[in-house]
Amino acid sequence: MKESIMNQEKLAKLQAQVRIGGKGSARRKKKVVHRTATADDKKLQFSLKKLGVNNISGIEEVNMFTNHGTVIHFNNPKVQASLAANTFTITGHAENKQITEMLPGILNQLGADSLTSLRRLAENLCLIILKVKNKHIQGRKIPVYASINRQCCSS
């Protein structure tokens, strides 16, 4: 009889140790520890090291053009490559910018798709200028420069 009382006390003590929250919460065998971003970065770097990536120096900026007319811009990125694994990694601070913010410095980087989106953007800008020219705000016309108007109408 004494043994069963001791076992119940021992079991109650063990159950109290297992409970993570307060009274009435579920019992867990172990506490789940969430990983930080640095742990993920270390795991990624270890995987890249297995692939045999090499650092590529001398790259000052990287621009990735999206279909939506935006640019993912990296300034002074860390670029690594493994030609055997057909893997390229670009790490660093990324900024999402509009193509218009990056002009004229990226004109030589634009491909055929980007040039068509830039042309479409210019056409939309011309349409907006023409619409604004025809509208009245509080009885006054908005002044639009004649040179811009001629350029839009001629193309």
From TrEMBL:
A UniProt-annotated Pfam family: NAC
Q: Which residues form the NAC-A/B domain?
A: 38-103
Top-rank taxon of the source lineage equals Eukaryota
PROSITE patterns per the UniProt record, alphabetical: NAC_AB
The record's listing under InterPro entries reads: BTF3, NAC_A/B_dom_sf, Nas_poly-pep-assoc_cplx_dom
Protein family? Belongs to the NAC-beta family.
In Swiss-Prot or TrEMBL terms, this protein is called Transcription factor BTF3
Record lineage: Eukaryota, Metazoa, Chordata, Craniata, Vertebrata
